[in-house]
Write a structure and sequence with these properties.
Beta-lactamase; 3 domains; 21 helices; 29% helix; 25% strand; flat
């Protein structure tokens, strides 16, 4: 019993695996930090003469390196500890690896492991190189908080893949010293080395993530909203390329504190009309040209028994009277949606809800990250089903609950030719650079509706942006967008919808509409400044992110390769690095023509190009370069530069190849 109380094996924390973005950028990593102690009675300094001979040199090195105490103070501390027989004297906390390498070279410490008394305790510190970028999705591990199973609380990817990331802890034999201090036993045979964790390759694109966070935060600040989220997903693969969540703090700033995109189940509002119209069209109840009386945006449902009004339905704007189902969808008419669904399903509402269930909207998507909110699509057997109201309310997005990501997955199915897939956040797991597991999106529904219905729905979603509620904000000339606005009143628990000023604004869609590559949802909760309508609240965020994504994806914004014929003017090329120019030409599908001289070269099949060559000690050739390149080249060669004009360099005052003293002035002319 005494032995067990005085010595036992203690876990050595394994180095946790890294989390990477899709392009290899490091999103989360473990940086080792070290706590340094010293055994003042170690074997190498057991002879007091050896210790006394070298202790002043050690004190001097520590004083210079740490800079917090003088040489004499360190020397006194070490001698006092030696006198007291300290076996575990604290030297320094939070020492980096490079610092440790230098400290091991200090006198006494350089005697080797255990002999010089230096005891190194490694502790791994988790850092996010991009700081707040996708921080909530990356997640964290909190050793100070325990879950029901007694394990440290972990959220996001850190929690979902903890078994891979954490690695296997090692073992070290420790002995309890006076003062209840545990000290490692100096015996290599009693140690089991830890095994570092595997690396996670996420689907996040750091550039898109940065754009998404900036656009969302800017709009939240502008509208004074309580919180909001945005998710950008690749249509064919289900890979989440960006996901941002912000909450307003007490100070009025916005921080990532909760992953609303995956956890917040709420009434979606008019974005749910996609499901309502898809159900009615696919079951042959209506078509896009079916007419409905929108009654100038005001409609009342009566109780047939007593004639009392049980539900008042209003539109944000007057859609007119007799309009087509397509127009009602484009103008987001609540009256139109409610009347169409009520007319065709009130005798058999189960038929409507069964169709919604066939879309799997009542099921979780089964995400790779924990915390997915539970969706709710009620049916006539639900305890809170109201025979007079529920069917009409559900038609335009009330009395149902979905998370933003669940709604996005449904919209993505329209862009993905009817195949509904579960969004994924991790594409691969690697250990020591080798792939041990790959992930692909799970198919939730092979075909949500017929191809005929899909064509009708796509046309309606495009119509929202071309002619409907998204026209003024989201429509643009470069690429087409398909999607739906959604403005919903926020219920206040048992208080219901009494507060008419609380709204949730959202826009969900995909782009380019003709060849969808990305789908996206933007949800902003409780805007308090300016309009509360989704087109003006959520629309600008969608547009800003989509513009940046489109501009950075050559496959989308260059539908056909650039072609040049014999009488076409060739693109202007600045003199520069050959490899860089080849890369640009390759991306633009232009065939370059490289030559040492280009006089008289036929440019009908390519772009003539001279690579700049440098001769050490001579003036470089900068003719044809832009100003920044010319300044860089001449500056590196050691010359002072005076520039006149703008454009590209057409003349330099000193001929290339001339040998003149360093520091001489060279005048360049640009036009």
């Amino acid at each position: 019993m005494a032995k067990n109380m005085s010595a036992q094996y203690i876990n050595i924390e394994a180095e946790r695996g890294n989390i990477f973005a899709s392009d290899g950028s490091l999103l989360a990593t473990s940086v080792p930090e070290y706590e340094l102690h010293m055994d003042m009675l170690a074997g190498g300094i057991a002879d007091d003469n050896v210790f006394q001979e070298k202790v002043d040199s050690l004190a001097l090195c520590m004083s210079k390196f740490f800079g917090d105490k003088s040489r004499s103070e360190y020397a006194r501390m070490l001698r006092d500890a030696r006198k007291d027989g300290e076996r575990y004297l604290l030297i320094r906390r939070k020492v980096g690896f490079q610092e440790l390498k230098e400290i091991r070279k200090f006198p006494i410490f350089n005697m080797g492991k255990y002999k010089g008394g230096l005891i190194v305790i490694q502790q791994n510190k988790r850092i996010l190189p991009f700081r707040s970028l996708a921080s909530r999705t990356i997640g964290y591990k909190n050793d100070n908080a325990k879950n029901a199973a007694g394990k440290p609380v972990a959220v996001g990817l850190e929690g979902a893949y903890a078994d891979y990331i954490n690695g296997e802890n090692g073992k070290r034999l420790m002995q309890r010293m006076a003062g209840n201090v545990w000290m490692p036993v100096n015996n290599d045979g009693n140690e089991v080395d830890p095994v570092e964790g595997a690396d996670i390759i996420s689907t996040i694109d750091v550039n898109f993530q940065d754009v998404a966070q900036a656009a969302l935060k800017k709009q939240l600040e502008k509208t004074g909203a309580d919180h909001g989220c945005v998710v950008l997903m690749e249509v064919a693969t289900g890979e989440v390329k960006a996901i941002a969540n912000y909450t307003r703090t007490k100070s009025g700033d916005y921080e990532e504190r909760m992953n609303y995109a995956i956890s917040e189940s709420a009434e979606p509002g008019s974005t749910f009309k996609l499901a309502s119209y898809m159900a009615a069209i696919d079951q042959g109840k209506i078509d896009t040209n079916t007419l409905v009386d929108a009654q100038h945006g005001e409609y009342e449902l009566y109780n047939p028994r007593n004639g009392k009004v049980v539900l008042k339905i209003r539109d944000a704007e007057d859609p007119g009277t007799i309009i087509s189902a397509k127009r009602a969808f484009e103008e987001s008419s609540n009256v139109g949606a409610a009347k169409l669904i009520w007319q065709h399903y009130h005798n058999n509402p189960q038929e409507f809800t069964d169709k919604l269930y066939s879309f799997h909207l009542n099921e979780k998507d089964g995400l790779q990250i924990p915390g997915e909110g539970t969706p709710r699509i009620k049916n006539p057997s639900s305890r809170d089903w109201n025979k007079l109201q529920s069917l009409s309310q559900m038609a335009y997005g009330y009395e149902s609950k979905l998370t933003p990501l669940q709604m996005l997955a449904f919209y993505n199915s329209v862009a993905n030719n009817g195949t509904m897939i579960a969004p994924i956040f991790v594409s691969e797991i690697r250990r020591y650079g080798n792939t041990i597991e790959r992930f692909q999106a799970r198919v939730i529904n092979e075909k949500v509706c017929s191809d005929r219905t899909l064509g009708r729905i796509r046309g309606m979603l495009e119509g929202v942006v071309q002619e409907g509620t998204g026209k003024l904000v989201i429509k643009n000339k470069l690429y087409t967008v398909a999607g739906k606005t959604g403005t919903a009143q926020i219920a206040n628990g048992k208080g219901g919808y009494g507060d008419k000023n609380k709204h949730q604004a959202s826009f969900c869609g995909y782009f380019p509409a003709d060849k969808p590559k990305y789908s996206m949802i933007v949800v902003i909760h409780d805007p308090t400044i300016g309009s509360h309508l989704a087109a003006w609240v959520a629309g600008p965020v969608f547009r800003q992110i989509a513009d940046r994504v489109y501009s950075s994806d050559l496959q989308m914004n260059q539908a056909t390769p650039l072609q040049y014929v014999s009488n076409s003017p060739m693109p202007k090329v600045k003199t520069g690095n050959r490899k860089a120019t080849q890369e640009v030409y390759s991306k633009l599908n232009i065939k370059p023509m490289y030559a040492s001289t280009n006089n008289g070269v036929d440019t009908s099949n390519g772009v003539p190009y001279d690579e700049t060559k440098y001769q050490k000690g001579a003036v470089p050739e900068v003719t044809g370069m832009g100003l920044s390149d010319a300044l860089y080249v001449l500056g590196n060669a050691g010359y002072r530069v005076s520039a006149h004009g703008s454009g590209t360099v057409v003349k330099q005052s000193v001929t290339a190849g001339s040998v003149i003293p360093k520091g001489s002035k060279i005048i360049i002319e640009l036009q």
